[in-house]
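FORM 7B: Structural annotation worksheet

SECTION A. Query
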Amino acid sequence: RLKTVYQGMRIPILVSPFSRRLYEEHHLSYVGEDNGTLSHLNPQFVETFALTSFMGVPLLFEGRIIGILFAATFKGEKASVPSEAQQEALLNLARAGALALHRIRTRSTR
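SECTION B. Predicted structure
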């Protein structure tokens, strides 16, 4: 859904309190209507995609971000802050993804 709406658009997603927390703290970052933090995203981005929540999980390798795993919910979909168990599962997925991404990049530069 994001791809079809986003094609050809230029919205500064990463210039926001949401992304600054993600990049500076290297932690899972969640914003949503359900906890009153959706305003931490660019309003044009929220309106264009009809977002009700947005989450980013950094893919960390050797202490630096090499990618980000994003998830979103849209108008009409139920959004809720991930539980501690869900956050831990997402962080484990991100660790595995970061390692896989690093290996792919390493192989492609040989």
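SECTION C. Observations
DSSP finds four helices and three strands in the chain. The longest helix spans residues 84-108.

SECTION D. Sign-off
Analyst initials: ____
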